[in-house]
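Sample intake — Acyl-ACP thioesterase
Collected from: Pseudolactococcus reticulitermitis
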Amino acid sequence: MLTYTKKYTVPYYESDANGNMKLPSLFNIALQVSGEQSHSLGVSDDWLKETYHYGWVVVEYEVTIHRLPRFSEVMTIATFARSYNKFFCYRDFVFYAENGDELLTIHSTFVLIDIESRKVVHVENEIVAPYQSEKIAKIIRGHKYTALSATTLEKDYHVRFNDIDQNDHVNNSKYFDWMTDVLGYDFLSSHVPSKIHLKYSKEVLYGATVTSRVDLVGLQSFHDIASEGKHAQAEMTWREK
């Protein structure tokens, strides 16, 4: 498998009130770097759309955070397409500090969708061959999520134009924004995540209204995003600053 690396300086507008890089920005820059690798290998998102009328969609993340990147910090992001089968592609991201320490890792699962039908399609070998990733028969089972209780914190959000990406649905990082926002300023300003499991079940389109719900149990939070059906789930482990 081929590894692609990029240096990145955390800008002011991607930093939160604590001076840490905003979590949605972490997902956005990860996808930016994976897109750059695809472009460098001649299989860019534009090529995929023009050749097959397909698009990549993230369906699950597993994130381990040792330390969040800080404002103005220069870090190195490494990514590689680890393996794939006929339905799923597995890609890893590793964020490194300037001294080489590992800041965080993201294990991600992607699928290909037909842009018109919005249905998942089989992964063609020629699409992923340039990444030199391993073809496997096994489907890697994701995290098992806990159902929320009847009494939870919740908040509604309306999907705006700026929440939509080029796949014409809500950008994956926006879900994380909705999920954590419900926890409130006091909690978010005094805690940082150390482990995140995040699963996308159903896309959300422009104009929808979604409800973000959370159960907070000690230093663990259990989340879902729902509208007409369940669209996303997450479980996060937090630590005090």
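Post-analysis note: The domain at 153-240 is CATH 3.10.129.10 (Thiol Ester Dehydrase; Chain A).
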